[in-house]
C-alpha cells in the first residue's frame, strides 16, 4: 500500500488590522524644542508627523488593540498561536506575547516574541508559515508592535524625527499554496558584523543597567544604515522574486518597511518597480518599527489601494542587521477598518 502523503499547507492571509496612538507630534512641534525644522525633516525622511503613545500605554496595549482588530476582521476571532514582533517588549522577562494572547481571550495559545527589530514582522510571517506548514498551528495571529518613544532619547532630534509608535497585525490560516493570500518565496538574512549600527547599548547581559550613566537609549548610524538598507532590501526583494519566477515589472504593489522615503524610492528604483506601485504611509505616522509593514498593509487595504489578485511584495530591514522579503497574491477580503484617519501633513 502506498503511503498517504498529506497535501502541503500554506499560510494564507485571512484578516488584518492596525492601531496607532491618538497623539500626533508634528514636525513643527519637534522644531519648537529641538534644533530642527519641518523642511529639514521632510527633505531627509519624507515624514510630516508621527504618533506617540500615552505614558500609561505599553507595547502590549498597542498590540492588543491591533490584534483584536485583525481577529475581528478575519471573521473567526480565534487563533491557536500568537507571535509578537517587537524591540520594545513590556519587560525583559517574561515575553510580552503571552500577556497579549491572554488579554485577547486566547489563553492557552502558543505565544512568543520575535526580536528582529524592524525586520521582525517579516521574520514572524516566515515563522508562522513554518508552523502552519508543519501542522503545529492552524491559525496564527502575527503582530508587529513598537513604542520607540520609550527608547529614543529626549534630545535625539534625528531619531525623534523618524520614529513613531504603533501596532499592526494579520491573521494567517492554514490553506492551499495556490490560493490567493498564500505567503510564498521568503528570503531572510542577517549580518551580525553590523550589530552596532542600530542598537540600544545597555540593558542586556553584556551591558546590564547598573546605574544612572547606563546608555539605554536607541542609537543608529544613519548614513551607514542607509547604505546597508538599500543594498540588502534590494537583494532580498530580488531573491524572493527569483524564487517565485517573477520579474519586478510583475509586482503590482510594493510594501516595504517604512524606514525613510529616500530609502524606499531608491530600492524601488534599483529593483525596477514603478514608483506608483510603492505603498507608503510614513509621512503620517513615521517609522513604527516592526509595526510598519502591517500598518502600511492595513492602511492601504482600508483605502482600497490593494486589489484582489494583485501581486504584493513585502520587504523589511532592521537592526541585527536583519532583513527579509516575501510575496503573496492579494486575497479578496471584507472591507477592513481604518487603523487611523488620514490627515494632511502638507
UniProtKB/TrEMBL annotation:
Localization annotation: Cytoplasm
Pathway: Lipid metabolism; fatty acid biosynthesis
SUPFAM superfamilies: Thiolase-like
The reaction(s) this protein catalyses: malonyl-[ACP] + acetyl-CoA + H(+) = 3-oxobutanoyl-[ACP] + CO2 + CoA
Top-level taxon in the UniProt lineage: Bacteria
Keyword Coiled coil: no
Keyword Lipid biosynthesis on entry: yes
This protein's domain notes: The last Arg residue of the ACP-binding site is essential for the weak association between ACP/AcpP and FabH.
Role, per record: Catalyzes the condensation reaction of fatty acid synthesis by the addition to an acyl acceptor of two carbons from malonyl-ACP. Catalyzes the first condensation reaction which initiates fatty acid synthesis and may therefore play a role in governing the total rate of fatty acid production. Possesses both acetoacetyl-ACP synthase and acetyl transacylase activities. Its substrate specificity determines the biosynthesis of branched-chain and/or straight-chain of fatty acids.
Protein name per the record: Beta-ketoacyl-[acyl-carrier-protein] synthase III
Lineage: Bacteria, Bacillati, Actinomycetota, Actinomycetes, Kitasatosporales
Gene: fabH
